[in-house]
């Protein structure tokens, strides 16, 4: 299971990197909706990693400097890989969401949430990219594996 999760996080990191690159190369970093969603993807991964590791987290909707996004993506990836390598994926963690509600999930469930959440929001970003007159960024898993 850990090998498959590593693959999914490599995919997530790759697609986030491609989105950042595309947005930068096509001067879309001033599109408020695109930038907000891209930040949200990266912030959410940082928040979930922090919940697992007991570290200080970002605000899930904070806006980071665009030039910092690639580094945040890379740091998120490295933290997720560290978690996969060194944690019992069946272990439950307790955490509070951004509204203060308390929950408990396994580390595997949290990690899968990161991947699924990222994919969902990259789809939203692609809709905005298409509405701006560009071709969507290929982020389907199957394209990544080809």
Task: Outline the secondary-structure elements.
Elements: H1 2-25, H2 32-53, H3 69-86, E1 92-96, E2 102-106, H4 107-131, H5 141-145
Antiparallel strand pairs: 1-2
What does this entry look like structurally?
- This protein has 146 residues and is mainly α.
- The chain has one domain (2-54, 62-145): Four Helix Bundle (Hemerythrin (Met), subunit A).
- It contains five helices and two strands.
- It has helices at 2-25, 32-53, 69-86, 107-131, 141-145; strands at 92-96, 102-106.
- A hairpin with a 5-residue loop joins strand 1 and strand 2.
- Helix 1 packs antiparallel against helix 2 (32-53), helix 1 (2-25) packs parallel to helix 4 (107-131) and helix 2 packs antiparallel against helix 4.
- It is globular, with a radius of gyration of 15 Å.
- The mean pLDDT is 97.
What are the key terms here?
globular; single chain; two-stranded antiparallel sheet; Four Helix Bundle (Hemerythrin (Met), subunit A); 146 residues; mainly alpha
């Amino acid at each position: 299971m850990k090998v498959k999760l590593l693959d999914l996080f490599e995919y997530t990191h790759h697609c986030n990197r491609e989105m950042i690159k595309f947005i930068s190369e096509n001067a879309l970093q001033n599109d408020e909706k695109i930038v907000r969603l891209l930040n949200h993807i990266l912030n959410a991964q940082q928040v979930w990693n922090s919940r697992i590791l007991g570290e200080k987290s970002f605000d899930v909707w904070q806006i980071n400097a665009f030039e910092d996004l690639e580094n945040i993506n890379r740091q998120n990836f490295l933290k997720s890989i560290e978690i996969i390598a060194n944690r019992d994926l069946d272990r439950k963690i307790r955490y509070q969401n951004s509204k203060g509600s308390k929950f408990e999930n396994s580390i595997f469930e949290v990690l899968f949430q990161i991947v699924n959440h990222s994919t969902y929001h990259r789809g939203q970003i692609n809709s905005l990219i298409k509405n701006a007159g560009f071709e969507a960024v290929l982020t389907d898993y199957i394209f990544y594996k080809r």
